[in-house]
Amino acid sequence: MLRDITFTVEEGEFVTVVGPSGAGKTTLLRCLAGLLPRSGGSVTLTRTGTVIDSPPKEIACVFQDYSRSLMPWFKVGRNVGLPLKNTIPDRRDRQSAVDEALHEVGLDGFADSYPWQLSGGMQQRVAIARALAYRPEFLIMDEPFASVDAQTRADLEDLILRVRHDTGLTVVLVTHDIDEAVYLGDRVVVMSGRPTVVTDVIGVDLPRPRSQVTTKSLPRFAELRTDVLKLITRATTEASA
Question: Is the pTM of this model over 0.85?
């Protein structure tokens, strides 16, 4: 149950969302993306004043389970091009958008492969490429790296940072991983246990570009990680009391 969730995401910002298990983080993202009706409140695109009641054309989503979001009977190129038929009428322009997106995620030469021929990390890159090919203004990601191994997760974190830098996308990403939230975000939104509120919004003043080794070795990274962990631990304790 979401009780009182209020925060703003600025254009071009990377915001991560963390909270105790069951706090409603995925529910929140579905409301932001217009995939789930709200019982109250509103989600508004400030630039246009549009109230989100259904999936808007400005937003693309990447979900946790790449094996369910990709069509196994379609090759990679066709998977990436799926959302483009209604937005890019010309076939050559669609192909160009697919090629650019695959290049952006490092999958040149894999357009004719099937998803099941790729590793888990590569399949999630296909899902990210599909979102990029759509050319959204906002990218919403629901624990997109939770289903891969630790090294692949680190590679995908750096990939999404590079993509965000190259494209200027606004990104909202939900994660259970506190290190990931701090490493990726400009700000970290910390949610409480149910009924859920925003406990705090922590600004991340770490330098960019970020590095898995250098950034995570900084004393400030450890301080921010501890701040977020304390808030989540307190929320978990209060929820179980």
Answer: yes
* Number of domains, the chain: 2
Residues 220 and 184 in one domain: yes
Based on the domain organization, do 153 and 234 belong to the same domain?
yes
Nearest to 189 by CA among 9, 50, 43, 66: 9
Q: Does residue 56 surpass a pLDDT of 90?
A: no
Under 8 Å between Cβ of 168 and 178 = no
User: Are 153 and 188 found together in one domain?
Assistant: yes
pLDDT band at 241 (very low <50, low <70, confident <90, very high): low
CA distance 22 to 215: 30
157 vs 20, 203, 234, CA distance in Å?
21, 19, 27
Q: How many helices (H) and strands (E) does the chain have?
A: 8, 9
Residues 191 and 219 in one domain: yes
Residues 166 and 91 in one domain: no
105: tokens are: 């995620």
Let me know whether 147 and 33 are in one domain: yes
Distance CA 55, CA 61 (A): 10
pLDDT per residue over 8-29, tens digit each? 889 999 999 998 888 788 888 8
| pLDDT tens-digit series, residues 117-129 | 999 999 999 999 9
DSSP, collapsed to helix, strand or coil, labels residue 171 as: strand
Same domain, residue pair 185 and 233: yes
